[in-house]
Amino acid sequence: MVVGFKNKRKLNPKTGLVQVTLDAPENICLYDEYFNETVLFLAKLDKIERDPRIQVILEMRDVIFISAGAITKLFNAVAERQLQVSPSHVVVNLPVDKNIRELLRTNGFIKAVMQGGKGKLDALWESSNFVCGSQRDITKFLQKIRALAKRDTLPNHLGVAIKESLINVNHHAYVANSKPETTWWSYIYVGSEGNRQYLATVIVDNGKGIANSIRPHVYELTKVKDNRWVHGDGYCIKTAMQESVTSTHEPGRGKGSEDIKRPVLVKSVLGQHHLLVLSGSGKYTYEIDENGEVQEQFEELEHRCTGTLIEWFLYFEE
Prior knowledge:
By secondary structure, the protein is an alpha/beta fold. It has helices at about 35-45, 70-85, 100-105, 110-115, 120-125, 140-150, 160-175, 210-215, 235-240, 255-260, and strands at about 10, 15-25, 25-30, 55-60, 65, 90-95, 130-135, 185-195, 195-205, 225, 230, 275-290, 295-315.
C-alpha cells in the first residue's frame, strides 16, 4: 500500500526546509500486477510542489524489486527535480535489502539520484548506466550502449530505432517554446541468462504524450462520444506505430514507426525480443512469438503515466 504524503510534512529547524516524505512501494514495477501501485506512487511524487523551500524525502527502505522501466521513470522524476528546482530538492533513502542495494550501486542509480544538478548528470556518462541528454547527444548515447555491452555493434537495427525515437522526442514531445534543455532520460541494462546476453534500453521523456501529439492530426482519433474520446490512448499509440501515419502530413514521413519496431522483428532461438511503449493511459507491445508470428497488442490503462516510455528488450544473436 502506498502511503500518501499529505500527513508526512514537517519543518526541519536546521535547514529551514519543509520536509515531505513519500514512501515507495516494495515493488516498483510498470509491468503486470504492480503497475497501478507504481503509477500512483510516481503521480504522488509529481504532485509535490516544485518549491526550493521544500525537500522531498523519497523513502525507499522497504523496496525489494524495481524493474527497468520503473527505475528509468524514477531516475527521471528525481534527477529532473534536482536539476530544475535545487540540487538538494530530493533526497533518496536507499533500500535496506542487500541485493537490491547492491544492484542500485552497480548500475549507477545511487550516483544518478544523489543530490546534485547539471554537473552530476554530466558525470553520469562516465560512471553510470543512467544518462540523459538532448538531440545533440545521440551519437554519444549509442557509444555508451556499446561500451556497457562491451561490443563493437548493437543488436540489428537498434541504433536506427533509437535515433528515430529521439528525433520524435525532439520534434513532437514538447509544446513549442517550452522544450527543456534535457529532453530525454535513459537506463541501459546488459544482463545474461546462462550463455544468452541481452540488452534492455529504456528511454523516457516528459512531453505531452503520443496520444496528444497524434490525435489532432488523424481524423479517426478526434471522434468524441458522450464527451469522451471514442479511441483511448492505447489505440492512439497503435495508430501512431503504423507506417505512413504522421502528424506532419508531409509526403514520405511516418516511416519512423517501422524503424522503431524493426529491432524486434527477429525470430530468435535465444528468447523473445519485445518492444514496450507506455504513454498517457495507453500501453502498446510488439514482439515476435516462438513461431515467428508478429504479436501486436494495445491496452487502455486505469491510471495515466506522464510523458512517454519506450523500452527495447533484445538478445544479442551473434
